[in-house]
Amino acid sequence: MLQVQSLNISYGPRTIVHNFSLDIQEGEVVSIIGPNGSGKSSILKAISRLIPCESGRVCIADQELNSLSMKQISRIMCMLCQSNTCPSDVTVGELVGYGRIPHKKWYERLSGEDYEIVAWALEQTGMLSYKNRYLVSLSGGEAQRAWIAMALAQRPKILLLDEPTTYLDIAHQLDVLELVRKLNQDLKLTVVMVLHDLNHASAYSDKICVIKDGSLRVFGKPQDVLTMELIRSVYGVETEIQYMPDSSSPRIHVLKKAN
User: Fold this and answer.
1) Pairwise CA distance, residues 181 & 165, whole Å
2) What is the pLDDT of residue 161?
3) Residue 257: what pLDDT?
C-alpha cells in the first residue's frame, strides 16, 4: 500500500533521516516511536510532501508520489499535524467541508453529495451535534475529532497523524485512539501515526516502527519490537514488560534510567 524507499531528509547541511525504508500494508495501523529529535515527524512530513526529501522514493500502490500533484495526493492521503489552526469564526461543519476541496475545481461550490459526505464524516467521529459550534469553543479532544472528521471528508485511503494525543488529558487521549482504531476497522483506513506513549503504541498498533538518530532500528509487531533490551538501547531506561491474559500486546512499566 505505502512504500518508503531509501528516504534521506536534510535540514541545511545536516541529514536528520538516513536511508529510511518502510513497507506498510493496506489497512494496517503503524505507529512510529523513538526519542525526541529522532526524525519521526520529519518522516511523516516527507511522506506527505510537506517537506522535500533529499533522496528516496515514496509510493502508494506502486505509484510514485512525485508523479502526482498535491491535489491528487490529497485525494489519497491526509496528514494532521501536532497543532492545527483555523480562523476563529470557522464552525465545525465549515471545517469539515474544507475536506472536500481536493475533489472540487477552484470555482465549484459544495454539492449535495459533498454535504452528505460532510455529515457522514461528522457522524463517524461523533461530531454531528457540534456542526454549528465554532471550532475555538471546543475542548482539545473535541477539536481533534473535528480535524479527524475533516480528514475523513477527503475520503483518503491513508491517514497520517503526527502525535494526535498531544495536549490531551488521559481520557481524551484514549478517546482519540479508540476513534482511530474504529475508523481503521470500519473503513479499512490505513493509519500511520507518531506516538510518544509506548503503551498506546503497543495497544493500538498492528506494527511499530522504532527510530533512533534518524535511522530505522526495528519494524514489526508490538510483542516482537517492545522488549526490555530494545527500550533500554533506544530510550536509555530500564523497564518491566507485562502481558495481560486477554491481550497479546505488551504493557511497559518504566522503572528507572539505565546506567
Assistant:
1) 14
2) 96
3) 93
Residues facing residue 187 across a β-bridge = none
Per-residue confidence (pLDDT) for residue 53, from 0 to 100: 87
Give the mean pLDDT per block of 10 residues along the chain (259 residues).
92 89 95 94 91 89 85 89 83 95 88 95 95 93 93 94 91 94 94 96 96 95 95 96 84 92
| C-alpha 102, offset from chain centre | 19
134 and 91 in contact (C-beta within 8 Å)? yes
> Quick check: 75 and 153 in contact, CB under 8 A?
no
CATH, residue 64: 3.40.50.300
* Residue range(s) defining the domain that contains residue 189: 2-84+156-257
* Residue 247 maps to a domain: yes
Determine phi and psi for 156, rounding to 5 degrees: -80, 160
Structurally, how many domains does the chain consist of? Answer: 1
pTM of the model: 0.92
**pLDDT, position 178:** 95
Question: Which three-class secondary structure string do you get for the chain?
Answer: CEEEEEEEEEECCEEEEEEEEEEECCCCEEEEECCCCCCHHHHHHHHCCCCCCCEEEEEECCEEHHHCCHHHHHHHEEEECCCCCCCCCCEHHHHHHHHHHHHCCCCCCCCHHHHHHHHHHHHHCCCHHHCCCEHHHCCHHHHHHHHHHHHHHCCCCEEEEECCCCCCCHHHHHHHHHHHHHHHHHHCCEEEEECCCHHHHHHHCCEEEEEECCEEEEEECHHHHCCHHHHHHHHCEEEEEEECCCCCCEEEEEEEECC
d(CA 163, CA 228): 23
φ, ψ for residue 239, nearest 5 deg: -135, 165
